[in-house]
Amino acid sequence: MRVFRLALRRLAASLPTLLLILMGMFLLLQLAPGDTVDALMAQMGGGDPALAEELRRFYGLDVGVAAQLWRYLVRLVTLDLGFSAIYGKPVATVILERLPPTILLMASSLSFAFFFGLVLGVLAARRVNRWPDTVISTLGLIFYATPSFWFGLMAIVLFSVYLQWLPAGGFGDITQSYTGIAAVLDIARHLVLPTMTLGLIFLAIYLRIMRASMLEVLSLDFVRTARAKGLTETRVVAKHVLRNAMLPMVTLIGLQAGTMLGGSVVVESVFALPGLGRLAYESVVQRDLNTLLGIVFVSALLVIVINFLVDILYARLDPRIAAGS
Amino acid sequence: MNGPTRRETFLLGAAALVPAGAMAQEAPRRGGVMTVHFATEQRILNPSLQASTGVYIVGGKMQEALLDLDAQGNPVGVLAESWESTPDGLTHVFRLRRGVTWHDGRPFTSADVQFTAMEMWKRILNYGTELQRFLTEVQTPDPHTAIFKYERPMPQGLLLRAMPDLGYISPKHVFEGGDIRQNPANTAPVGTGPFRFVQYERGQHIIAERNPNYWREGMPYLDRIVWRVVTDRAAAAAQMESGQLLFSPYSALSIADMQRLGRDPRFEATTRGNEGNVRNNTLEFNFRNPVLADARVRKAIAHAINVPFFIENFLGPFAKVGTGPIPSVSTDYYPGVVQPQYGFDLALANRLLDEAGQRRGAGGQRFSLRLHPAPWGEDIALWSTFIQQSLQQVGIRVEIVRLDAAGFLRTVYNDHNFDLATGWHQYRSDPAVSTTVWYRSGSPRGAPWTNQWGWTDPRIDEIIDRAATEVDPARRRALYADFVRAVQTELPLWMPIEQIFVSVFNRRLRNVANNPRWASSTWHDTWLAS
């Protein structure tokens, strides 16, 4: 119950921010020259101006900017996200279709990055300044410095074109119709490369943070006490250091969940995945205001939810935080 | 080229021994899934409402037009079996194919043709609205005859050449009553074509399956066609190599990848089958800038750019030097190399600029211009940089302004806020469809790919108007030769490069590229070798 109240309070506090973001996006997109009818004309390869005018009426662009914004906000109050110009369907439906692949990709890459970042960070910290540390840190640097589209393409060339182990793209094999376990396995196979590609850069960050955080905690007094008690080194690390070193990692997850939503445009394009990132990109290029604002709205909600979960997790890891709030 | 290999020589020898009939080509195999690269998703898939290659590549397998082009590029009947026109060009009769049914089982009749022509082509279809402006009615004396009545003469050649692209039929019973644009059948087409719509997952794929009741006996051969949405060029090339895609149409891969795959024996990269889809790279001048309103400056700019060098080093074998707005593949209207042409001549360019009073100032610079390149096509980006560097040599500083599609159209064709612009002119079978509009004055502000240059020439307007309604093919041809000569002299815009779109095929696909608009056509006879 307390958690629920906290959640409501958080949501209420985020509403003004959400409104500002939406209005900002709306006005920002007005600054871009051209509207969705121009984009459609470009796609069609031409058409006469009477047709363009009729289309502007059809898409509700025949009124002023203020009137359009007002119409949008009024609709939003009733939780109506409007109609998508490019997809010819309600925005809510369009986003809902794209949400599962996005969340799946985000969750799998975050877990991948978090888990291996943690393990490698701990390994590096325990062998600090010796060869395992040097190897792991160098790898981290390489992962961090390499652009993800390059990683993705190289992974495709190696694993799909030459070795033919994994599919080069898509969210499932559409030439076959799988059901049940086979369908799940099929999607998993398609997600291996994108997950690795998207995860590697975050893995590098987690690894560095975990290593630094471990080193810091290892030098604290309570660790010396634990060692003085005669505990084995493994026990010291697992029971005393790890839990305290985790806090910055959890903070990062909260921050990066938002980044990953937007940061996957490149990975989605390279692997031809139908995610939110590509949808957002497409709606900017096509000047599809309703869809873009809908995505911003949903992404903002998602970030708020994840940050809320992170806060709860904080309290579990460090009881002092919950007591203080 | 190499002579026949030993194996081929053997086969040739064998052919002489076997009676002709038995030596047919490989027998088509039934079955298989053809996967197609779909690079830019469209809002709708209905080719009766939107004329663009992105729609034909999908909708053109499910819906059919009255006519298509045969292997030689001549009109051939699809839903129409035969046609005749009165000598005055005011009446055109189409006799329709019998026994054709829509995918939902209803019969195809002249009422469908009448509805599509009046409600879709004349009112919504881009380029159709202009083509059919003077269409007054379509009479349907019986279910298998459609009589098109025009207010002004419509040249039969123009109508027949335009029909393969602008003559797709939609089912009246699906679209009548209600808003045509919002009809769900626009993204789930109901047609008469060889493939039936199954599923469209936005951002992922479109699936169509064999139409068992197709009117061509025993066809199509393929079980399914799957269009995969792949927006990244490099990723699409990788999918071609891994076999996830079998066909990438309309130059959707990068130039380097198309050349690389073309050298790989598993693939074919060719302009074959796209002869009906020619484009010119343009250089468009804004006459509102007084410097560019001087013909000597425009000609100097053209003379300063080494087009053959650019083609050889950047575009490779898929392009050639263009000679005017009517490309060399237009068998009916290409007038040959009409003078004047603008070859690379720096000395002449400098002299023309001096004569125009644009003398070199500080640092050897004469004046500066903004160049807006259209955002489609890798070649346009390369071409704009090449223009920039070429003009630097004659003392013209060029600033490149890059915008996305909507921004480009709005800035150039509506706001007229540019000095130079470059993009594609697409030639669509006949100069009257989408070529002369680039030169005809009186085009309303904001109409893309039309005369928005602030330039008018009544003499050229008159030639264009006369040619559009001239029913005698020989006289029409002569008028278009006059037209090309006139616009090459005036040079309101320049079309120095001619390109045909490139298709990349996996060689397992058979019966491909067998007509000049193959990527857009029905694929009823395409099959997949095992």
Condensed summary:
The complex is a heterodimer of chains A (325) and B (530). With 325 residues, chain A is mainly alpha-helical. Chain A contains 15 helices and no strands.
What does this entry look like structurally?
The complex is a heterodimer of chains A (325) and B (530). Chain A has 15 helices and no strands. Chain A is an all-alpha fold and 325 residues long. In chain A, helix 5 (91-126) packs across helix 8, helix 5 packs parallel to helix 14 (289-317) and helix 8 (180-218) packs across helix 10. Chain A is globular and about 85 Å long. Helices cover 31% and strands 21% of the residues of chain B. Chain B has helices at 6-17, 53-62, 110-121, 128-131, 156-166, 172-175, 233-242, 255-263, 290-293, 295-303, 307-315, 346-355, 378-392, 405-414, 431-434, 458-469, 473-490, and strands spanning 33-38, 67-69, 75-77, 80-85, 91-96, 135-142, 145-150, 195-201, 205-210, 224-229, 247-248, 267-270, 278-285, 319-321, 367-373, 396-400, 420-422, 424-427, 493-500, 503-506, 509-510, 527-528. In chain B, the strands form 6 sheets. In chain B, strands 13, 14, 15, 16, 17, 18 and 19 form a 7-stranded mixed beta sheet that branches. Chain B has a 4-stranded mixed beta sheet with strand order 1-10-9-8, with helices on one face. Chain B has a 4-stranded antiparallel beta sheet with strand order 4-5-7-6, with helices on one face. Mean pLDDT of chain B is 90; it is low at 1-24. Classes of the chains: A mainly alpha (325), B alpha+beta (530).
Name the average pLDDT of chain A.
83
Show unreliable segments of chain B: 1-24
Query: What's the end-to-end separation of chain B, in Å?
Result: 29 Å
**How many helices of chain B in DSSP terms?**
17
Category from helices, strands and their pairing of chain A: mainly alpha
Percent helix of chain B, as a range, is 25-40%
Chain pair sharing the greatest interface: A-B, 55 and 62 residues
List the quaternary state of the chains. heterodimer
How many H/I helices of chain A? 15
